Amino acid sequence: MNEFIEIKGARIHNLKNIDVRIPRNKLTVITGVSGSGKSSLAFDTLYEEGKRRYLQFSGEHYMVDTIPKFEAITALAPTVAVEQRIIRQSNPRSTVGTRSKVGNLLAFLFAAYGQREPTYDDGLPLSMEFFQKNSPKGMCVKCLGTGRYHELNEDTILNKNIPIKDIFNGFLMKHRSYKANFNKFCELHHIDVKDTVGTLSDELMSLFKYGCRKSGFVGAIVFFHDMQKHVTSKHVRHNNKEEKEIDLWGIKVASVTCPKCNGTGLGEKAIHTTISGKTITEFENMYIGELLIFFDRQKDVLPGKNLIDEIILKLRCMVDVGLHHLALSRQVPTLSGGEIQRLFLASYIIAEMDSMIFVFDEPTIGLHEAEKETLINIMQNLVHRGNTVVAVEHDENFIRAADYIIDLGPDAGIYGGERIFQGSLHEFMSCNISRTAPYLARATKVSAKQDFKPIDSLRMLTIEHANLHNLRDVSVSIPLGMMVGIAGVSGSGKSSLIHDTLVPKLKQLLKTKLVYEEDDDDILSPDGNASVTGIEHIKKCIVVDQKPIGRSKTSCPATYTGITDRVRAIFAKMPEAIENGYAAGVFTVNSEGGCRACKGEGFKNFHVGFGNWIEVECEMCRGTGYVEEALSVTLERKNIKDIMAMSVAEAADFFGRKESEAYDKSISTILDTLKRVGMGYITLGQKTPTISGGEAQRIKLAKELCKHNGSGNVYILDEPTTGLSFSDTDRLIELMQQLVDAGNTIIVTEHDPTVLANCDFIIEMGPGGGSDGGHVIAQGTPKEVGANEKSILGKYLKQVQI
Q1: Are residues 562 and 685 in the same domain?
Q2: Cβ burial, residue 601 (10 Å; 0-12/13-18/19+)
Q3: Helices 202-210, 220-238: inter-axial angle, 10-degree rounding
Q4: What pLDDT is attached to residue 226?
Q5: What confidence tens digit (pLDDT) does each residue in 528-585 have?
Q6: Which of 196, 229, 515, 577 has the greatest CB tally within 10 Å of its CB?
Q7: Same domain, yes or no: 685 and 562
């Protein structure tokens, strides 16, 4: 059997025809600076070819021929992978419980051994479907399993001051049968539709509300209830957000906790069936770590031993991969990229697969240093079972644990894509041309702050009595005018304190002075018990999170940052454009410049079986996404497609040369800022679904920095170093320090000890996750936290060279 998987001539994206060897049955790490080509090698080459061969072997052939972006790959085995991308679930109601199958096991357990209240026991046997809110048998008939109900208010619908004809807001114009019956009703009862609702007599109002048999008119209230059911059903199928209200033909309908199921989403049989005094909803709302302890303690007294053993096995695997802080009821689309990867990893462990190739994208993302050790052991156990594990990774301890290292570079984008090194850690340490090796060999010292800014006790942002989620009446003061790190193990309460308590309170208090890119509905309602003081010291609060940028399929960094508007304006002023009458819209795929066949995407999707899809280049535009007219105009010998294919670093040079026809100061400023936050490698036209959470956050940060907000601002960041190499992290720390030096405050939730060692002040949550967390266990300067015996972070701070 071949000892190595051999990849020859890999040339997709920025890879420069490289040859790589990956040892079988070993743990291999692919590293390098951000944008050096790691994902192109691991996912777009290794994984994609493994998937293609499997589909061919299984009889599910590609519908069209695809051109491989490599010369040859040998000794390839079946390949599975999970990328750290913004994952768009086909089923927005998927939860940790449904994905892990623990939810199914609990449903079986309740169906077989649940104790029913006598009032709701009809003597018929229960099936697992009665305990699944996505099942017709199990869902609440009122809210259709959502736990939320859109409550109609008659006074809102039948506003007495509006004309009768306006009640249906144009719906009647689109539906002839409703319109005919409505007109017949009005004629029969001599009603002038221009009159207001309030002019109707009590008798006519009753008919108008509840219907008239003679005319066939169903009545306004009956009509809106029917429409509500339709809209609610559609809402259930396509939406995962618990919206505060929905628009029902122009009428705002409030969303409330369903009164029938009390928010559980389940039917009456499930609500009134228990095991050990708990309903299935109560089990699903427990933290996974708590649930494991419960079943471990009760396994000898509970019925269904085989089922419970299987539940314990799955829960233990999820705890081992660092998911102890999640509940089974947590929706999958709300998980971070790292959490999703570990959820999939848990299922692989349970399946006990062997002879597979597993490909992971920074699996340590979102994990505390203490939790990474367990994850590394799990990866090594996968290898010991006879699997090959390949991980794109920047984490130092993970790299050191690898059997084999592949380093790509030397830099990002067009300046990367070369194989710098492949071999053992010992050999890698002496690789002088690598950007990563010197950090591991300590030839390049990790930056750490030496002098900490003194705290101004008169300028503090204070949170008092925070009790949301697992927070235990937390009161803490955040010093302003410095870099403040929020640390702690997964589920310790970091996000609950900052993003779920502080941010909603600041939104309530600062109103328009809080800048948040997403919908207001994404910010939770403020915790009624908590209070926040000290806002008089804040000019503006800017929340920069990891949620996706852009809303459409053709969104990209250039459209999000406003670069596209400037570029197409430049193209519209070129002589060829003026001569042919091409306006700016010709140079955008979202408008008249987009290919009609693929709607500006440059490709078409084809289903190839087993839930898999492939992207095939559009034959009309040959993958450009543009019409021919848009491509006929050039700027410095580059057309619009050429420019959108440039990396940020390339484009910064292209638009930054003052002697060039392409020079544009505003474009150059945005591009230079993107480079400063470590995003020089992404292309201007890169589709936003391929942008990771960490990348999305840094792009948002760059956009905000270009606004020159001045001093007195508070920036709230969520693990901004996600996906960054050692050198890129150093540059980001420098940028954050510059913001602080300019008189601003940085509040950063982070696990990276290098970032935390560069903070002026640290607040550490813990000591554990879930029910074991929710306390402030240490606070102070990095040196003070490092010396605090209660701190879990402390020993890792000491390892950073100070």
Answers
A1: yes
A2: buried
A3: 30
A4: 67
A5: 689 999 999 999 999 998 888 876 777 899 999 999 999 999 999 999 999 999 999 9
A6: 577
A7: yes
- Separation between Cα atoms, residue 150 and residue 780, nearest integer Å: 47
Is the link from the previous residue into 454 a cis peptide, with omega within 30 of 0? no
Residues 159 and 234 in one domain: yes
Confidence of residue 239 (pLDDT cuts 50, 70, 90): very low
The one-letter amino acid code at 526 reads P
Q: Exposure pattern of 530-555 as b/e (b: 16+ CB <10 Å)? A: bebebbebbebbbbbbbbbbbeeebb
Confidence class for position 178, pLDDT limits 50, 70, 90: confident
Q: pLDDT tens digits for 363-416?
A: 898 888 888 888 999 999 999 999 999 999 999 999 999 999 999 999 988 889
Q: Are 84 and 318 in contact (CB under 8 A)?
A: no
**How many Cβ atoms sit within 10 Å of the Cβ of residue 205?**
16
Q: Is residue 42 part of a domain?
A: yes
Q: Do both 545 and 584 map to the same domain?
A: no
Tell me: do 562 and 493 sit in the same domain.
Answer: no
Q: Which tokens sit at 404?
A: 């084999």
Would you state the pLDDT for residue 90? 42
Q: Are residues 563 and 641 in the same domain?
A: yes
CA quadruple 203, 204, 209, 212: dihedral, nearest 10: 100
> Which residues contact residue 164 at a Cβ distance below 8 angstroms, ignoring those fewer than 6 apart?
186, 191, 192, 193, 194, 195, 196, 197, 200, 208
State the DSSP code for 618.
-
Cα gap 691→734, rounded to integer Å: 23
Six-digit token string for 413: 């984008």
CATH number at residue 56: 3.40.50.300
Q: Which of 223, 257, 291 delimits the end of a domain?
A: 257
Single-letter amino acid code for the residue at 590 = N
Please give the Cα distance from 683 to 557 (Å, whole number): 8
Residue 33's DSSP bridge partners are none
Report the C-alpha gap between 274 and 264 in whole angstroms. 14
Q: Is residue 430 part of a domain?
A: yes
561 shares a domain with 676: yes
pLDDT for 271-312, tens place per residue? 999 999 999 999 999 999 999 999 999 999 999 999 999 999
Asked whether residue 397 falls in the same domain as residue 361, the answer is yes
What residues pair up with 523 in beta bridges, in sequence order? Answer: none
DSSP letter for 529, please: S
The residue range of the domain holding 162 is 148-257
Nearest C-alpha neighbor of 383 from the set 409, 421, 354, 416: 354
Six-digit token pair at 163? Answer: 């004309």
201's torsion region: left (phi>0), alpha (psi -120 to 50) or beta? beta
Beta bridge partners of 5: 22
Asked whether the beta carbons of 654 and 675 are under 8 A apart, the reply is: no
Reduced 3-state DSSP string for 287-349: EHHHHHHHHHHHCCCCCCHHHHHHHHHHHHHHHHCCCCCCECCCEHHHCCHHHHHHHHHHHHH
CA-atom Rg of the chain in angstroms: 29
Structural domain count of the chain: 4
* C-alpha to C-alpha distance for 179 and 183, rounded to whole angstroms: 6
Enumerate the H helices of 742-781 as residue ranges: 753-757
| DSSP E strand boundaries for 412-489 | 418-423, 460-466, 474-479, 483-487
pLDDT in tens, 80-109: 987 655 444 445 678 999 989 999 999 999
Residue 295 lies in a domain: no
Residue 2: is it exposed, middle or buried by C-beta count within 10 angstroms (0-12/13-18/19+)?
exposed
- DSSP-based three-state secondary structure for 678: coil
Q: What is the pLDDT of residue 214?
A: 86
Provide the whole-model pTM. Answer: 0.80
